[in-house]
Fold each of these.
Amino acid sequence: MYQPPADEGEIVLDLSQHPVNLMTGYHGDAERQAEATAGGWYHTGDVAQRDGDGYITYIGRTDDVFKASDYKVSPFELESVLIEHPAVAEAAVVPAPDPTRLAVPKAYVALAAGWEPDAQTAAAIFEHARTHLAPYLRVRRLEFFELPKTVSGKIRRVELRTREQEAFDQGVSLSEEFRDDQSTRST
């Protein structure tokens, strides 16, 4: 069934057009295969947005994009801004459960050499983010952390999301976390 192109959403390929160089399927995983090819479309898992001039902006992966205060948040966009700060060597943004907003953006940051994991550094990173991001995208929590990675070096956001959810479910406050509305660690 034909669906007209949208200005925002998941990038999909029409399988009836036999896209070149597309994998033939997930070997031995019929459920995942059915999910990836539902409705005659190959679902890439990538989300993008087209502006009025036709330019396409990558937003992120469908499994990484989350809602905070009913706004879609792309970790990719926030991380791109965070790594522009000289203190940030690497960053990963995940949703942190929040009783008021359901979730807020939380940055896990690996520091560049010469920077201390203290309130002053956190305040500088928060200020940088506030200056370069729309208010609804503001990073509200930050933790200096050694980022978990796959063997190929890709950051494993799923582990960070799980860490956040488990702490929330157990009513535990992560003691090394900084919050944007204060300059000291949460307790």
Note: Helices lie at 30-36, 75-82, 119-132, 157-169.
Amino acid sequence: MIENTKLLLLLFRRPAAAMSLILDRGSLLFSIASVVILSWLLRPRFPFSFYTPLLVLAVVYVPGALLLSKLLARTRGTAGTVFHRDYAPLFTCTAMAWSAANLPLVAEAWLFPTIGALGLALLTGVVYLYFLVLMFFAVRTVFGMENGAAAAVVCLSWIPLLAAAFLWGPLRFILGWLASPFVLFYLYYYLRSEAGNLGAGLRSGQNFRRTLDAAAVNPHDGEAQYQLGLIYQQRRQVTEAIQRFEAALAIDPSETDAHFQLGRIALQQGRLKDALAQFQIVLDQDEKHHQSEILRELGALYNTARQFEDARQELARYVERRPYDPEGLYYYGQSLEGLGRFAEAREIYARSSEAADTAPAYLRRSAAKWSRLAQKQIRKLSAAG
């Protein structure tokens, strides 16, 4: 309980790190209890039952955010898979975010019991704006989204709440009925296996993290450090990811995967010299690393540096090996466009768009980005003559 309280308070100082730690160590039961307790303390200020916020978060807000993440950010897996895998982690983070955001309202009720209606309305607005800020970090951490996608999910997360507001009459009756102790007992009795499955996503992730932490104690286990780096990288905690990848290389300098990921991070951060140094090591160790994706990343680097001939050479080799990768084809088109070979660039962009549109179903959504970018470049080149 003490550790979870510290995580709750950490949300005020380091929200990104706090959300990551909640995924690794947070308690679903604590997050539920914190929402219920704070809701009960807020009853003198707001005319809702103490269980209403918890039910709205659990039944409306979190499922809505999961659906939006599936639609907007193309999270991996079917809708059912996403729900069972990510519901408990997202709900735990959401409940902790709601509790942290509402702590000032509880403090205000104790310290300034005579605050006016206007002051209370302004404070409530600030509280829920801060809740959305915390949800940005929660969504980005749980799903590993880019900042823009996470912001879009959070900005649109009011839609399920708006729908619930229109249906509040019957919904309030249903929520009140669900909150009945007898109904809760029978639901738990008959659906406890399903309820346990909902929490499996959080438990499995935390068990895996504990296993890696235990393995990382071994000063000779570079693989554990690498796997921890991947977790931080997926959660957009780049500094921590770099530290883990470098720790893996300190143990085993031949860890090609760690060099590859450090190069990708450096490229994303615009540190081209560092990225080139890491990619060169990967090439020296295995030029077919990661299904030859090292050639694609190196081509992207040369495009960024406007060394288009070098990019063309690397990407030509990559496309020869993987002719249906829309990302590699898009970068190849960029290199040809940079060299002024516009007709060839249009042809390659068209191939990139076609490869994305004909990709297998499980890859089609992630490939759609490259189709849109390729079509944009085709229109640009066509307009230019």
Note: Residues 218-286 form a domain with the Serine Threonine Protein Phosphatase 5, Tetratricopeptide repeat fold (CATH 1.25.40.10).
